[in-house]
Amino acid sequence: MLIRTFSSTVQGIGAIKISIEVHVSQGIRFFIVGLADHAIRESQQRMESALTNNGFEWPRFRVVINLSPADIRKEGTHYDLPLAIGIMAATRQVSETRLSDYLILGELSLDGSVVPVKGVLPMVMLAREKGFKGVIVPVGNEAEASVVDGIEVVAVRDLSAVVSFLNGMPVAQAHCVAAGSTLKPGHERYSVDFSEVKGQTAVKRAMLIAAAGSHNIILVGPPGSGKSMMARRLPTIMPPLSLEESLQTTRIYSVSGRVITENGLIRERPFRMPHHSSSNIAMIGGGSSPQPGEISLAHNGVLFLDELPEFKRGVLEVLRQPLEDREIHISRAAYRVRYPSDFMLVAAMNPCPCGYYNHPGKECSCGPGIIKQYLSRISGPLLDRIDMHLEVVPVPFRQLSQKGHAEGSAAMREQVIRAREIQGKRFEAEGQIACNARMGSSLRNRYCELDREGMSMIRQAMETLGFSARAYDRILKVARTIADLEASEKIHPSHLAEALNYRNLDRDGWSG
Predict the structure, then answer these.
(1) Which of 195, 358, 450, 459 has the most CB atoms around it within 10 Å of its CB?
(2) What's the pLDDT tens digit per position in 72-111?
(3) Which CATH code for domain 2-175?
């Protein structure tokens, strides 16, 4: 008897429908064909134990299972449940009436319980796109699957519950939830706040500008000056995730198996802080079974690279293309995938190996050659792609001991949101562009016009400091954001002067 069930496989952050054809005939062999990986081939033992322990019969016949299309490699344990249901339907233990209406996902334990799997969100979105009535998923993936509207979500705990549902018996976990019903403004919960930062008014101002225009920023200063502390608080002043951004981010985390929120949707902007020993694959993604890297996990959020010169040179250089294109294409012999990587890069570094070069109160013990060698670990092209360079000085004791209330994240966030609203209206007809940092050359020429005084100022800076064309572009975008924060339609010389001050490393020749 030939039976067909349906499942899915993840490709990048999307999904592809997989048809599972089960044929039972005379014989005693068991075959799985269609480019199945080891996890799928091992499913026979899990399925046999699950069926036996739940009072069902494992067929003593020849079973042939084909995973179609056969030219796409299938990986993962989420095929256990649809394979088992197909075998049971082929041996008339389950009704085949409803099989064509549902996409089935789930890993089986030996006792028959259904274990959560990763990649559920893109597969549920595929089921809706392909016109399925619903999806059958483990209870552990219920919240994640329920964010997709217009499709029934059947959450099951064990194999017996699936059989009962397919045989027409009611299952308590079956329901349909509208997308976005659990995503409400103001639900972000941050354990940190900018009000905890003492002093550093100039740096907080720079962080405000960076968040308002989504500009990349690098902080250079001695140990203990607050670089990491302020970087960790940057997401608290960024605008709330829109529903579309939340779904994009959740899809990436779903593919990585990292969705652990109660309502299934990620509502806070990601903050990723990879260790400086990270490899190229850990940073950009890929591997034998392709997974998103840190730059994709930081999509719509912040990628914080602490101790920037300590990262391997090759790891830093792979960031150059994603910083420009906002996505990463990974090509290998066995696959080619694309992951989104629209993130804010925040980097922090000491000015020298000992950390006290230019320190107001401590003497640097590094020689000039050592300092130059240390700073040369960061290439000029990478540094050129960072919009704002800022020196961070230690906070004096007088400011540390003050008990006055500093400006908090809520007040700063309101300013960022107002500036983003101005940018949203400006780029309303420009497609996917939502902030100043994403402007191309044509948009920058249109919206970053300077008056005569401004042109004279930036011409002098370019000639004196030797800025590159890319640095010129970044300076104008930062100036545009500063003007937006003041609700100014035009970029005034004061806005441009402040933007020029945020290229400290170029001014001091630190970029090499």
Answers:
(1) 450
(2) 999 999 999 999 999 999 999 999 999 999 999 999 999 9
(3) 3.30.230.10
